[in-house]
Amino acid sequence: MSDRFERGLAAIDRLAADHAAIFDPVADIAPDLSRYVAEFAFGDLYTRPGLEPPHRQLLTIAALAALGDVRPQLKFHVAGALNLGVEPATIVETLLHCLAYVGFPRTVNAVGAVREVFAARGLLPVGDQRPTA
Amino acid sequence: MSDRFERGLAAIDRLAADHAAIFDPVADIAPDLSRYVAEFAFGDLYTRPGLEPPHRQLLTIAALAALGDVRPQLKFHVAGALNLGVEPATIVETLLHCLAYVGFPRTVNAVGAVREVFAARGLLPVGDQRPTA
Amino acid sequence: MSDRFERGLAAIDRLAADHAAIFDPVADIAPDLSRYVAEFAFGDLYTRPGLEPPHRQLLTIAALAALGDVRPQLKFHVAGALNLGVEPATIVETLLHCLAYVGFPRTVNAVGAVREVFAARGLLPVGDQRPTA
Amino acid sequence: MSDRFERGLAAIDRLAADHAAIFDPVADIAPDLSRYVAEFAFGDLYTRPGLEPPHRQLLTIAALAALGDVRPQLKFHVAGALNLGVEPATIVETLLHCLAYVGFPRTVNAVGAVREVFAARGLLPVGDQRPTA
Amino acid sequence: MSDRFERGLAAIDRLAADHAAIFDPVADIAPDLSRYVAEFAFGDLYTRPGLEPPHRQLLTIAALAALGDVRPQLKFHVAGALNLGVEPATIVETLLHCLAYVGFPRTVNAVGAVREVFAARGLLPVGDQRPTA
Amino acid sequence: MSDRFERGLAAIDRLAADHAAIFDPVADIAPDLSRYVAEFAFGDLYTRPGLEPPHRQLLTIAALAALGDVRPQLKFHVAGALNLGVEPATIVETLLHCLAYVGFPRTVNAVGAVREVFAARGLLPVGDQRPTA
């Protein structure tokens, strides 16, 4: 294993309870894909200095919401954000902030995906100190 | 409730048997999102003069088909179009018209979503007066 | 020339002052592409019964705005809509209607493309009978 | 039936065990859509000279992976590639090649779709002669 | 002018030297569009509590990079980030973080757009304390 | 320089007359981005066994055409395909094959980008042995 791989694996482990969710589904078909996830996406990119991990997670969530058709990855990274200590309301706020760029349909679907993660962890309802207009 | 909210709610109610489908799924996580749906998407935009509601629905269906990954919203607005009196064949025709721009895969998937709405209402087969080549 | 081709060419000619804008740019590299435009996009799809040509144009504009990166085609079809007698304000209204789905950035860019077509025809400012809030 | 239709149907039959997967789902709602699939997508485009059918399949897989939200079509064409004799590892390799353009989330989801097709045919694990870094 | 409009205008003014860049281009064709930008995108969304303005800008940049075809908006919001005191290197870091999701082509083009903003302000070269491998 | 970097650089040099087109535009803003292009996109992915370089180029072209808003990258890779000995007609054929998935507008724009590369090399008109219907 390269240094990049080990560094990426450590980053995944800080994010997820278990990195099996990334490695197992492709182990018998494209093991190199999860190797690249560890080496490049996490080992090269995620561990760069210059941005705090919680902010990185929110940037990821913004980008995934804009892509629109990547629900499993969105759920993985929302769980990762929670594991890093990001407040549920901050994750929701991130999606509401992006609403103007992403549009309503993809935002509604992204919120639905986030809700599944929150529900599984007993985090609903999300405390909301926001004005109700 | 603002005037915009009430105006939007009335627009939703003309479209859907029940606006709960929009409000309930986000009530415990992002109530502001459904408020924006009512105030902005429906209260500001949908109720503008200059286009008839049935035409607005077909424009929505064209845009959602092009986005491609927003099946729940497509089904909601197809049901809305039927509720406004749009003929099933006109909805199908809208998707066929957009085929050249949207491509076959997304169009086939959009037709599949529309078919689910039609099937639930007993509207199949769609009467087709079109030439068969 | 097939019937489909001639039927499509006639449809293009009703839409555009001149179909050279479609045929010339690809004549020395992919003439079959413009043949398919004529035969399939216009001969098969555009000339189907069930939707009026002006409405077809607005559906096209909605789909192209949602795609987002097809400015030349958007301008071609906006010009086509004007040639079919669609009011400038109705074209703008179509883009504003789709704003909730398409998002602000792509809508702003689509309006900018439409503005170029209107400016070249001396159609600015667009008469606006809409409420200003 | 036109020549284009018959030519397209023959192309589909070389690709799929059964063309019912294309025709049946839209038979009672948009039969013209499957007619266009046969006539245009397969009769006009797929049967053109200049590219071998296995390469055409891989190009299709690359394009569908980039579109990202067209899982049923991706699975259909992966099955088609296998039916044409393409090696499972070559299909995986195609997705890995496109990773830099398509991004990780859509690639991971595409590999997941491909895996379902391979699993149903008992093709797992995919023999992998590739270096492990 | 509504409170929402004034609140949005103030938010735009904190971001941009001059809000004319938003209002002027659509003034003679779709003034309601810039009103919605001010009222909704900035007045409703941007001014919500729960995220600091510099972080909001970086989320916007992530979402716009993922959309891919919205260069003018990306440049506007990069300039806005600088005006809010975000370090140039942090903006670049945001795009590099999103590379795994957005892919190389759109990231390279986004960096090119950012570079134009930086060049116009004499901010090149970007100080880079990052490891060089 | 790592082995991955050198291997990637060699791959770029086989593709392009000069790798400066990749490195220079980001040298003063995001040098790590071009490092990742060399190390990951080319060093890791492009040099994998299992697909011939000319086929890799055509897969790239298919994916980029589907992404739709990445004209500079499309032109770079079309030039690369020519440098690898791919026939101009095969490149055009690749885009026509993807037309059913990508749709007409993005295909027409992709062909326009390809045409610019061909024109700069004096490769027009493209010899076309294809049937004209």
UniProtKB/TrEMBL annotation, chains A, B, C, D, E, F:
Q: Pfam families this protein is in?
A: CMD
Q: Which domain of life is it from?
A: Bacteria
Boundaries of every Carboxymuconolactone decarboxylase-like domain copy: 31-116
Among InterPro entries, the record links this protein to: 4CMD/NDH-1_regulator, AhpD-like, CMD-like
Among the GO molecular function terms of this UniProt record, one is: peroxiredoxin activity
The protein's matches in PANTHER family, at most eight in alphabetical order, are given as:
4-CARBOXYMUCONOLACTONE DECARBOXYLASE FAMILY PROTEIN, CARBOXYMUCONOLACTONE DECARBOXYLASE-LIKE DOMAIN-CONTAINING PROTEIN
Q: What is this protein called?
A: 4-carboxymuconolactone decarboxylase
